[in-house]
Amino acid sequence: MQRNKTEPSNTVPTPHGKLVTDEYQEDETLKLLPVPKENDINSQREELVKEQVSIDPLSEPTRTPNRSKFSVTSDSLDIIKVDVPRLLLSPLFTSQSIQDDIVQILYNYDHSYTSYRQGYHELCGLIYLVLHEDSDDETSSLISRSDFNKEVFTTMINFIGPIVSQFYIEDSILGWSVSIFNRNLLLVDYPLYELLLKYHHIETQIWVIRWVRLILLRELGLQNSTRFVDFMWSYDSDITKLMSYIIIILLIRIKLSLVECEDSGEVLYLLLHYPYIEYSDSDICQMIEFAIQMDQCHGDEKKLKEVGVQCNKWFHKGFKWEKVKDLGKLRLELKLKRRVRGVLGGSK
Prior knowledge:
- The chain is an all-alpha fold.
- It has two domains: 11-160, no CATH class; 170-347, Orthogonal Bundle (Cyclin A, domain 1), CATH 1.10.472.
- It contains 16 helices and two strands.
- The protein has helices at 38-54, 65-83, 96-112, 120-134, 137-142, 145-167, 170-188, 190-199, 204-213, 217-234, 239-253, 255-260, 264-272, 281-295, 301-315, 327-347, and strands at residues 11-13, 19-21.
- Helix 4 (120-134) crosses helix 6 (145-167) and helix 7 (170-188) crosses helix 9 (204-213).
- The longest helix has 23 residues, at 145-167.
- The radius of gyration is 24 Å and the shape is elongated.
- InterPro entries: Rab-GAP-TBC_dom, Rab-GAP_TBC_sf.
- Residues 1-22 are annotated as: Disordered.
- This is Rab-GAP TBC domain-containing protein.
- GO terms for molecular function: GTPase activator activity.
């Protein structure tokens, strides 16, 4: 996961070549808090109860930061400990010691930055796995377990931060769906935009939330997803915009299948159950190249449309999408062709 040569000046490399902004770079002074033992938590809860009882119930309600934070973190820790053993991304996570690592990283993330939400454990696991696979035996021998966990933690803060703020808050995901994704889809592939939003009246946020919250993990599978994560982390651009372009590219890939759907129910099912395929390295490189080209258009309508045409040609060789004006009419034609093929096949 190497960044390109256009890194901003306020970044410094970590042991694996990742970059962490100055805001979170604390060199040797950064230490992850240990996960509290159950006895410690119970003791703190008892003290909390005593404090609450001693407060006059008729007085103005007060909330001390420490008490509020303990309450949130202790409850979150219970959920984290339930979620982490369910992490099925790799056999690596069946190891109790690695599960303990993930719990500690998520506990610190919850304690220091934002309250834990279900799904964070898969994001953390994905980062842990990518960094683990990036490290060779020689590198692994030079970095301690605690240092590796700190690297996962800082990477999670920098990489996942924008994803959490944009995709895990209801108002934010709605705004992103309308102002960023829908606009980009309209400019890159207007017929596809018209099919989904005008013809079938499917609101983007209904299905896209599943795609973006886990960085396409469920749609692409682990191997494909890690390669796209590698790209999004190393390419110096707004990850939320890159995500919109990558999703549009993936939609163009299944465009014919979307057109062939009989009704909005079938379309929505296809969007929520994206057909899996293991992409080759050349496929991934080409799709990433399309995403970079879209990003470098900087919103230019003509240029985005041109990239969209090239993307359609690459996925659907020989099919001239740019000449298709009515996807509803095309759907009927495709349906008729299927029936004809079925009749001819049955008569043999």
